[in-house]
Amino acid sequence: MAARGSARNSRLNKKPKKTKLRG
Hints:
It contains two helices and no strands.
């Protein structure tokens, strides 16, 4: 689970989205 979330965060991290604050 952690690895999966990390990979997703990395991809969304490049885009200016509120994913980091949301998740």
